[in-house]
Amino acid sequence: MLHYHTHPVTAFQQNCSIVWCDATMEAAVIDPGGDLDELLAEVERRGLALQAIWLTHAHIDHAGGTGELAARLQLPIVGPHPGDQFWIDALPQQSAMFGFPPAEHFTPTRWLQDGDTVTIGRETLTVRHCPGHTPGHVVFHAPQIDRAFVGDVLFAGSIGRTDFPQGNHQQLIDSITQRLWPMGDQTVFIPGHGPESTFGRERRSNPYVGGT
């Protein structure tokens, strides 16, 4: 079975998730924005073998620790979609602007496209391309446990910002209604910030996309 633990990192309290297969104890880390020593201590405490970094998008609070972590442990970087190349290129400027430690440059080992899959141990998750917050944003869907790791696409009671370069409000709404809602009302999503919720709850009550 697939398990996960969410650990908020940096002053932005970004929900970095460690996901693992309990049959193999192999793990991936989703969006290591920083506080790497804390994350690695959590991995060690659980007896996991970290195999990969998965990225939903390349904003500094989600990707700031990626280059260092990949170099430190020789891990492949999987994702995001190529639309976020310019955000990766801008990580040094992002880190300076928001007061983060200098972000190391990196090149993803593998870019992701809509419909791709990622595997950790014996567990496979589906990738959906969900642009709007950033053009290259992706979401990781684990139907076997009714979970989705959605980055900054959707939050409990809110949606992702679209006022950053190449953000697009209508694209974001379309991503939520056309890519997330079909995963099912029962699906619990882990957002990039704040508490978990379900797609059903947000469809009913979220003021930005409720009733869609």
TrEMBL record:
An example Pfam family from this entry, by short name, is Lactamase_B
Region spans: Disordered:
192-212
Q: Does the keyword Plastid apply?
A: no
- Name the needed cofactors: Zn(2+)
Q: Which SUPFAM superfamilies match?
A: Metallo-hydrolase/oxidoreductase
Identify the keywords attached in UniProt to this record, alphabetized. Answer: Hydrolase, Metal-binding, Zinc
- Its recorded name reads MBL fold metallo-hydrolase
Annotated organism of origin: Paenacidovorax monticola
The taxonomy runs: Bacteria, Pseudomonadati, Pseudomonadota, Betaproteobacteria, Burkholderiales
